[in-house]
Amino acid sequence: MDSEKKWSQFINWLLKKPKSIGFFISLFLSIIVFYIVSQQYQIAKKNEHLEMDNSLKAINQNIDQSLKNCYTSTLTLALTLNNEGIPEDFESISKKLLESNNSIDAVELVPNGVIRYVYPFKENQAALNLDILKSKEHQKEALKSITNKKMYFAGPIKLQQGGLGIVGRFPVYIKNKFWGFSAVIIKLDTLLKISGINSINKSKYFFQISKKNPLTQKEVFFLPYGGDLSETYYVTNTIPDGDWKLYLIAKNPNSFFIPLLLPATLGFILAALFGFSITLLLKKPAELQQLVNEQASNLEESEIKFKTIFDQASVGIAQMDSRTGNFIKINNKYCEMLGYTPSEMKNKNFQSVTHPEDLEISLSYMEKLKEGKIREYSIEKRYLTKSGGVFWGNLSISPFWEPNQKITTHISIVEDITLRKENEDLIQKSELRFKSLFNNSPVALWEQDYSAVKKHLESLNLINENPEKVSLYLKTNPDLLFKCFSLVKVIDVNKQCLIQYAPRTKEEILNNSNIIFEKESIPSFTKHLIAICKGQNYLKMDAHIKNPKGEIRDINLIYSVVQGYEETLERVIISTEDITDRKKDEKLILNSQQKIESLINTIDGIVWECDIQTLHFNFISKKVEHILGYTAEEWLASPTFWQDHIYADDRKAVLKYCSEKVSENLDHDFEYRMVAKNGTIVWLRDIVSIVYENNQAASMRGIMIDISKTKEIEKDLNNSFHLVNEQNKRLLNFSHIVSHNLRSHTSNISSIINLIETSESEQETKEMVQLLKSVSNLLNETITNLNEIVDIRKNTNLITEKLNLKQYINNALTVLSDQIKVKNVKIICTVGDAIEVNYNPAYLESILFNLISNAIRYSAIERNPTVSISCSEENNKKILKISDNGIGIDLVKNGDKIFGMYKTFSNNPHSKGIGLFITKNQIDAMGGKISVESEPNVGTTFKICIQ
Predict the structure, then answer these.
(1) Are 920 and 910 in contact (CB under 8 A)?
(2) Which tens digits make up the pLDDT trace of 210-235?
(3) CB within 8 Å of 772: residues ≥ 6 apart
(4) What angle is formed at CA 83 by the lines to CA 80 and CA 89, rounded to 5 degrees?
(5) pLDDT digits 0-9 by tens, 256-266
(6) Strand boundaries in 489-571, DSSP class E
(7) How close are the terminal C-alpha atoms of the chain, in Å?
(8) What is the number of other CB atoms lying within 10 angstroms of the CB of residue 111?
């Protein structure tokens, strides 16, 4: 009673001080507003940091991906080197590399550290002959690439050819001896473009890139920014391949605080107004009393609201008799959960709907309630439904009586937690499955706690430091490794650990981790610590350990942080799989493959294998580069490479032949042509065998042999054979001519001599002698003509010169000018002044003279003679045409003998039949052809094809 009296006095005292109450309420609400605003500020700041971090990571990934693409380019460039270290097809391959990789501006080959080859040449020739191993600006980063034997991106540096750029250098070794570098150049503008910097919100952020100067070790910034980084808010990231540091700097670090100013101001104003309102309220006790009266008058309405809440609640609510456990009043949700109607529930008690296994605990709590030991309680138990089902409920019991009053009724509130219980059961089963998998895994598994290790590294300020700095620190402080290892707590190990590391008991591993920490474990544990400092939650690597038997074993080690423990590292799973035997097998297989590959590459032919259905090649030997110029990688990159590079004239027949043989599962051997990389045509003989698997034709193997030289020899033999045949034909024809003509003259001479011997008078003898002279002159002329023909045919090595065709035509027309004037011949010459031909001067002069003089000699009497001379080009050959409107030749009758010796086709007394014969022989000797088109009384056209 005294305590109640004191409380009443305290309340009355407070009511007498309304300003103090109003001030404290206003202060309390202001503190709440300040707390909410500060939390919102922290959330906004965290979101800003996350946005900046994600943007910088995207830029980092773009740059990193671009640099990785450069690895392929430098490797491809290195492959252009032959065994003597001389690049082959450097410009064409460099051009393709630049076309396929838009992040590269130029490529270089740097034998012995001196830039000797650049592409594009014109833009980069200023860099030639620069010795980067002697240049202070380039030496240190170049030596770093050689030391690590991997690609390293130097810069940004000032390029010899102008501008800032990044140089990626890949060390090249030929026969295990350092040759030099294959390098790519990425201009700084190109790097910034491909990195995606343009996509960041420039109204909110600055971007900056920096690197420690290899000579001064000072951080150098490469992009314009006028501020001091120490006074800004920024996020940073690193690119290990070039030791660069990327910054994303907020232009306005407190921009996310501005939106909070208005709600904060309103909150403080409302707190002040609320305190002021409380003050006014306490100043009016009469009004407060009136309010209390109004509340009392609304009790009935509150009762109605309570009933509404009771009936429509989402949990089961019931009023129960505390002594019997009978239901007095029960809401709809309670009935719905149990499956009974309200009237049925009034005839039941809580004992009848409780699961038998949970009844005892329910009754014990109820007894404590009756005895006054407890006033309320909450338990989880199972209920039986009307249909015989079971559900889990969270039961809360609250009294319906005041303290020290007699127990009457209580309120029972039941929440259906069946789904939660099922989830808990699933989690428990999942945990059991994990334990089973963990213990029975064929791989040795360790569950370890690295939290103490991380805390120790944090104390040394190594967390989030540069990996190189961490590595250097660990090397210079070797005791730290043993200290950190001693801080690793082994939580559990599986059965395979006991087999693999053979301790006496499981407890020995849990209590003494040093049983496997030997010097062989130092490199792998060093990588663990570097991964922890980087915040890396997963690490996979090959390592060496010494087992308890003293054997050095190869293991595949996986370090994986359990999800949910990324910050503390309290649970880490380490798996160690013994791969010693596998490594030995892999080495044997690799050695075997290298021997087979070496043997295949010594074969003087392209060894290949392809799928029998798709003709997609899955293997091609390196000999393909020697024979056709393509690399094996280029061939295998395209599924249709072989079909695409068969010579067009052979492709259809080859594919048809191959398809027929494959459909019959027959080995085959055929010849065809392919187009080499330099555009030349190569003859191949392809010997193909069908490979069977499980009695089914699965693939084809074969060897392509270069037979181009054989084909050339065969072609030369055919040409020689054709030439000999033609010569034999001509020789036979010539022998017929000689035999016929000489026999005619000798026969005439013999007859005349006989007549002389039998002549009866001196006059008759003189006549016969005169006739003999005439026949002798004809014989001499015939022999002269035959000698001229022999001279033409035996001149196989005629001297040719570049001759102006128009000039030689004019010379022939000048010689024939008297005949042209006498017959009033119209000459039409359309041959250009600049046309030149490679020809023997004497032959060209003779050919033009004979053909033009014939056109004039055999002109028609009834019309004015016209001679047309023109020159055109057909199939890269010059065609000279000489046409006339003369008497023409009957080609039907005389076409086969028009170019024969002593063949005449008119009554002209000057026609001897030797001019066209000599002309044709001269044209043939120069490798050309002559053809004729003619019609009697219309005209004749001669066409001379000049090679």
Answers:
(1) no
(2) 776 666 667 766 676 655 666 677 77
(3) 749, 752, 753, 756
(4) 25
(5) 566 666 777 77
(6) 489-493, 538-546, 552-561
(7) 137
(8) 16
